[in-house]
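Hi C.,

You asked whether I'd gotten around to modeling the 262-residue construct. I have! Everything is below, sequence then structure, no commentary in between.
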Amino acid sequence: MTPAPALVAIAVLGLVVGSFLNVVIHRVPRGESVLRPASRCPRCAVAIRPWHNVPVLGWLVLRGRCAACRQPVSARYPLTEIVTSLLFVAVTLRFGVTAVLPAYLYLAAVTVALAAIDLDVKRLPNAIVLPSYLVGVALLVPAAAATGDWGPAGRGLLAMAALAAGYLALATAYPGGMGLGDVKLAGLLGLYLGWLGWGEVVIGTFAGFLAGGVVGAVLLVTRRARRRTALAFGPYMLAGAMLAVFLATPIARWYAALVVAA
C-alpha cells in the first residue's frame, strides 16, 4: 500500500506538472517555446506574477480573471491541473512506488496534453508524440533492468509495431477517417499497453474505437456533426488506453465470466 505522504507528494507534483501542461497545450500547437517567455496573459501579454501562478489557488484567488486586464481566464487552466493531479495519484495507486511508476506518470501527463491539443486543433503534434517514444523507452528500460524481467519490454515493442502497422493500414484504406498523427500515437500507446499485457492492448484499442464510435453516433443523431465532419480521434485513443491501464484485468475477468456462463 502506498504511504499517504507519498500520495500527497505525487498529488502536488501533478498540480505542478498540470500547470506546465497548460503552457504546453497553449504554445506547442503554435510552434512557440514552452520555456520562454515566462507565463503571461494571452490577452494583455502582461507577465503573470509567481504568486498568481500557483496551481489552482492562483486562479481561485484572482476569481478566474487576469490580475492586469481583468479579462476572464478559462476554467480549463485549473481543471487541467486538477485532472493531472488526480491521474498522477491514480497511477501511483495502480503501480505503487516502483521503478515503472515514472514511465506511467509520463504517459498520464502526455495523455492530458495530447487530448486537450487534439480537441483544440485536431492535431497531435510531432513535437510531443515522437520524443515520447524515446522518453518511454528510456523510462521503461530501467524498470525492466530493476526486475530482471525483459518480457514486458519485448512485448511492449511488439505491441508498438503491431498497433502502428494496424493504424497505418486503416489510415491508408480510409484516409479521411484517420490521420498519421493517430498512427504515431497508436505506436506509443502500444508500447505502454504492451508492457502490461496483450489483454491491455486489445481492451485499450477496442475501448478507443468504441468511445469514438459512440460519441460520433451521438453527434450525428443530435446533428452536431455530419458524416464528413472531422472529429479528433486522439482523445478516444488516449481514454481507451487509460481505461486499459486501470481496468483491463477486471474487464477481462468479467468478459471471461460471460463466455463461461454462455
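If it helps when you're writing up: DSSP finds nine helices and no strands in the chain.

Thanks,
B.
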